[in-house]
Design the sequence.
């Protein structure tokens, strides 16, 4: 779902756009505004991915709003004035809808925005997947943790313990296991228990459905057993 807002000082035009947003399965209407200044204040605390933005408005025009706005939101201009088209595209708007427009035109513009947002998300995911480390706060310091050094990670409510190769004590950090898991490459790490994530490349011994790291035995729970067995089957001789 693409988080979306609409800004238009004309009530009927705003009602039309918000209706189209609600009608579109991949768009989520977060809020609508008849005042661009209120919208700008809202965006400071509530980031969105897409803005349908009127141009001819009092106090602040849509193009002025686009120049001032510091968010990463994509913009689709909606206006009754064709003369603003060139300026709109100079501001890197995704599209320019000339009023009155129907749902088909709206949907084509929304799909353009969707493709751009998906491409950017894939690019970010690829960068994160190619990263070889993460940073963790521990003991009032920030430590860089190389993925290859991690043996396993244990979750303890609001804390995690990260066990590293060649270190006798784990790193304790104020975070959740879910948050750390989101930062780890899926091809290298696997959650095998509600409280444990293991580095697949560091597994040397498995004893009766338990992964062995030195004197520590990590159980593979039933919830994650099928996925772990699939990993074993792919690498079994």
Sequence:
């Amino acid at each position: 779902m693409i988080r979306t807002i609409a800004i238009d000082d004309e009530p009927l035009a705003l009602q039309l756009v918000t209706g189209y947003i609600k009608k579109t399965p991949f768009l989520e209407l977060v809020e609508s505004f008849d005042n661009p200044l209120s919208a700008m204040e809202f965006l400071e605390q509530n980031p969105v991915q897409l803005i349908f933005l009127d141009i001819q408005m009092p106090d602040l025009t849509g193009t002025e709003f686009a120049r001032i706005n510091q968010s990463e939101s994509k913009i689709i201009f909606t206006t009754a004035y064709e003369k603003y088209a060139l300026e709109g595209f100079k501001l890197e708007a995704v599209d320019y809808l000339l009023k009155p427009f129907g749902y088909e035109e709206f949907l084509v513009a929304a799909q353009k925005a969707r493709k751009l947002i998906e491409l950017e998300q894939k690019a970010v995911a690829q960068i994160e997947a190619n990263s070889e480390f993460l940073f963790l706060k521990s003991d009032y310091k920030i430590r860089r943790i190389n993925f290859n050094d991690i043996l396993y990670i244990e979750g303890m409510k609001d804390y995690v313990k990260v066990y590293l190769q060649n270190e006798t004590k784990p790193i304790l950090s104020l975070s959740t296991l879910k948050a750390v898991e989101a930062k780890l490459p899926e091809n290298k790490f696997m959650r095998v228990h509600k409280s444990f994530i293991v580095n697949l490349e560091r597994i040397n011994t498995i004893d009766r459905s338990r992964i062995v790291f030195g004197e520590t035995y990590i159980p593979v729970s039933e919830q994650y057993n099928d996925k772990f067995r699939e990993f074993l089957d792919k690498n079994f001789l």
Q: What stands out?
A: DSSP finds seven helices and 15 strands in the chain.
